[in-house]
Amino acid sequence: MTMNKKLLLLFAFVLATSWSFAQGPARERIRTLKIAFITERVNLTSLEAQDFWPIYNEYEAKLEEIRRKERLELRSRVALVQDLSDSESASLLEQYSTIQKAKYDAEQDFIARIKNVISPKKTLLLLKAEEDFKKRLLQQMRKRRMGSG
């Protein structure tokens, strides 16, 4: 591993640790692994990383806020869908559409901002790296459940 990559990974680790300080240890560990995974897969230069991570962290925070809203406003009510009236169902469906649009808008805003920092190819590598990381995380969770079940 080159010295620049080592410094970049160290920078990513410090960034992850400071970002997730208020969160639980499991989330912090996942966040740290995700940052290292993305840094390696996208092959960010140290200059790119300086501009990239603040934008990425802002995007992640925005998505987390949207997901929190989704959990609070939708998930509990969807479980009771059999008991909802048509008007309550229509209202819930409207909330769902609004939340999905917010996710889409956040992603479009992020891509518009990030493409000024990294190349289109690296942007595509980032999107792929995020998907690959999610898949690995799910596989690890399944393995643990199978092992402990």
Structure write-up:
It contains five helices and no strands. It has one domain (3-148). Residues 13-22 have low confidence and may be disordered. It is an all-alpha fold. The radius of gyration is 18 Å and the shape is globular.
Instruction: Count helical runs.
Output: 5
SSE sequence, one letter per element: HHHHH
Radius of gyration: 18 Å
Low-confidence stretches: 13-22
The proportion of strand residues reads: under 5%
Overall residue-averaged pLDDT value: 83
Please estimate the helix content. Answer: over 70%
Q: Termini, distance in Å? A: 39 Å
By oligomeric state, this entry counts as single chain
For the sheet with most strands, the description reads:
none
- Helix and strand content put the structural class at mainly alpha
Can you count the beta strands? Answer: 0
What attributes characterize this protein structure?
single chain, 149 residues, 5 helices, 85% helix, 0% strand
